[in-house]
Amino acid sequence: MKPVKVGLLGLGTVGGGTVNVLARNGEEIARRAGRAIQVVQASARDLNKQRICPTERIRLTTDSMEVVNNPEIDIVVELIGGNSVARDLVLKAIANDKHVVTANKALIALNGNEIFEAAHKQGVMVAFEAAVAGGIPIIKAIREGLAGNRIEWLAGIINGTGNFILTAMSDEGRPFAEVLADAQRLGYAEADPGFDVEGIDAAHKLTILASIAFGIPLQFDKVYTEGISKITPEDIGYADRLGYRIKHLGIARRTAEGIEMRVHPTLIPRRQLIASVDGVMNAVLVRADAMGPSLYYGAGAGAEPTASAVVADLVDVVRALTTDPNNRVPHLAFQPDAISSVPVLAMEEAKTAYYLNMDAADRPGVLGEIATVLGDAGISIEAVVQPEPPRGAARARLILLTHRVHERQMNAALSKLSTLEAVLGPVTRIRVEHLNGD
Prior knowledge:
The protein is of the alpha/beta class. It folds into three domains: 4-135 and 303-338, Rossmann fold, CATH 3.40.50.720; 146-298, Dihydrodipicolinate Reductase, domain 2 (2-Layer Sandwich), CATH 3.30.360.10; 349-432, Alpha-Beta Plaits (2-Layer Sandwich). The protein is built from 14 helices and 17 strands. Strands 7, 8, 9, 10, 11, 12, 13, 14, 15, 16 and 17 form an eleven-stranded mixed β-sheet that branches. Strands 3-2-1-4-5-6 form a six-stranded parallel β-sheet, with helices on both faces. The relative contact order is 0.13.
């Protein structure tokens, strides 16, 4: 059979990695796909830029729409990022009866509902394994490998930059700003790091994971997002003393009331495997009713790890080229007419345990006052740590762990604590997840 011809939109790190993987493993890939896969055209902003891949057999252009409109091309691979130009190119490719592979999490999280509806009507596929967790095949695992399960919850370290920073803070005891500067110097963080450290990147990915796990529409605007810039080495040290590590997690959970979707710093027990995921690595822990817990770990970024997922999607598309469109794996795991309208809960309705760190007046009865405020809000205390204050100090540090309560209860308690004369300054609140069966 004649080769399947591919056009790349973007020939940067991931595009170059994709060309290299296809060239190096072409024979093996053809044996798996049933046909050879060839990149015949690619768009790039600078045609004279040095590439990490050979380009002699690839027709280069600065016009991405030329690739999309090329009648020779069967599959368009979108690697330019963003969600404005990319959206227009992908929708045009679909209108031209071309299948699409993308690594663009923002595009899928923000425009996926529209894109998948267009693809379904046109009878083409849009594959997006590389959009979440780089080379880890987490989309396929949830959408296909766990298709016989009811997913209960998932929790993921899905941004390598944030994980690198928290790991360095933990290992070296250095503050956030100092480690961030190192991450920028090493190329792990952008000059403007907000997209990563404030959780927006992770929220895009969590939007996608929650959709395929629970069969709900993509709803990025309903993800609660909190970054790591306020985490201190002291918090990391106290967490360690209590048997926890702090990770920046994306969490999606099914409850009787609706779906929780949240990204925030989280204390997790050291005994959990995901707590040992360090540096720029990613991991996703999934709890399913039949399978139980399963952990997916690997490189969340990089030229060839991400290219691995792009090429896997290409193989899937090639295998499905001759199949009835109605018998293909649905884009969001569930059949389009079976997508659920179950609500996404506001953060106030989420339920979790809490770590509280505060300075309080060092006098008798203060702990009782604080415990009374928490008790009035229906919050019970699991553990208390009171480090010995410096000799003669008029204030004491209190570290509290609570049992699970609704966020609105904790919000009410923190509001009341802020009015206590005995509480000196703001209270640090970090959520706690034990990642058991609950």
